[in-house]
């Protein structure tokens, strides 16, 4: 209101962008990665990055359950085939992270 009284013009519209920063570092100090997202515009990308480790963990658990069934269980022929097909669908290069 004071701006309107002083200048006769409404104050300029200021839009704040929310930023999220994620800083990843290692104890030995060799590598640091910083991810920045403009929220809420990039909320989907942010959510995917945050959930990435949980998704890898879930893939690992699925793989280990299928492996355990095949190695130590007594699966039916259909169960064994399904477990093998599931393990084939998992991109193992992701699990090496």
Percent of sequence in beta strands: 15-25%
Please tell me what the overall shape is.
Answer: elongated
Helix and strand string, N-terminal first? HEEHHH
Total strands = 2
Largest sheet entry: 2 strands, antiparallel
Structural class: alpha+beta
Tally of domains: 1
What characteristics describe this protein?
alpha+beta, two-stranded antiparallel sheet, 4 helices
Structure in words:
The N and C termini lie far apart (55 Å). The protein has 97 residues and is an alpha+beta fold. It is elongated and about 85 Å long. Helix content is 55%, strand content 16%. It has a two-stranded antiparallel ribbon. The chain has one domain.
Topology summary:
Blueprint: H1 2-7, E1 18-25, E2 32-39, H2 43-72, H3 77-89, H4 92-95
Antiparallel strand pairs: 1-2
Helix pairs in contact: 2-3
Q: How would you sum up this structure in a few lines?
A:
By secondary structure, this protein is an alpha+beta fold. Helices cover 55% and strands 16% of the residues.
């Amino acid at each position: 209101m004071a701006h309107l009284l002083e200048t006769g013009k409404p104050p300029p519209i200021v839009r704040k962008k929310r930023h999220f920063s994620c800083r990843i570092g290692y104890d030995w100090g060799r590598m640091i990665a910083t991810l920045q997202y403009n929220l809420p515009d990039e909320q989907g990308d942010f959510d995917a990055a945050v959930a990435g480790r949980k998704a890898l963990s879930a893939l690992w658990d699925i793989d280990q359950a299928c492996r355990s069934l095949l190695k130590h269980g007594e699966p039916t022929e259909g169960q064994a085939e399904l477990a093998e097909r599931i393990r084939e669908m998992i991109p193992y290069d992701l699990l090496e992270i």
